[in-house]
Amino acid sequence: MDARKPLPAGGVMDRQVCLISGGPAACLWPTTDPSGTLPNNAIQEIFSRRFRRLLTGDPDGVPPWLEVIAAGNGTGLYLPTDAPWVVHADLATLVGGVRALLMQALHPGSLAGVRSHSRYKDDPLGRLSGTIRWLTITTFGSHEAVASEASRVNRMHERVSGSYHSAGGESRNYRAADPDLLRWVHVAFMDSFLRAHQHYSSRPIPGGADAYILQWAASVTPLGLTEVPMDEAGLLACLDGCRSELAVTDDTREVVRWLKNPPLPGAARVVYALLFQAAVASLPGDYQRLLGFSAMPLAVIRPVTTGFLKFLRFAIGPESPLEDAAIARLHRAGVM
Prior knowledge:
Blueprint lengths: L14 H7 L3 H4 L13 H14 L10 H5 L12 H6 L4 H12 L3 H9 L7 H17 L2 H16 L2 E5 L5 E5 L3 H22 L7 H9 L15 H11 L7 H11 L5 H17 L2 H7 L6 H19 L4 H13 L3
Antiparallel strand pairs: 1-2
């Protein structure tokens, strides 16, 4: 992992694709280096330049939250050999993020908080950036950075409350810090990143699904959530227990329409359409039916998606400034 090729100057994944997808890896893979050294592979340079020109969101190519990840000399929740690090550093999270947002849209309580107390209508991409910030810092940051980020999220949650109509039609009050709502958001993201990785990544998860679920459970303890699934059986049981709470409302349909057709430029729209189809195909059949989708069979969409993600890795290069910064910090901490 220390033997890295020189980094292309000014590269960054598109902010829109990164934020819509909701996956940390979308913000991990952009590359930049003040030396301006170009990739050794000329073909990769051409593809990288094209992606940067088409999908740039930051003119300087600096990954978001790089300084936060790099700061200090301490350890964090995870090491590069841990399951959450491996899963969240993979580009399959581009699919998992879309899948998680579709799942969250099925819970009226979760959706009410998004629509009533966020910038969703005016700045949907900006709203999602907060979620990605938390996921990225929690996965790759130091304990101090994780605690600070959790404090930011908790302060935000304290201001979010209201009411919504449940799947059965009853009016219910809610707070963003309610354990049941936090748990649903947690399992929606966790299940989505896990399934996307299982379907669309060739990289093994250290310890398998159980290790990912157990280790990622530590991420929500600073948010005040302690009763969460600790293995795959527990995750499936939790999802099954939430099933009666799910419903499709007018708000759900509006959000799903936006997720299906977000404001992206032409070429990025084609890429996103594939990610969206892959996300839908990885959902359980009953979720697909609730959302009104008829997905492509996984046997059809999987090879196309995995092939595209492999091409994308090649096109933008294997370097990850955020991951490199986290590893450098771990070296300073003496654990690597």
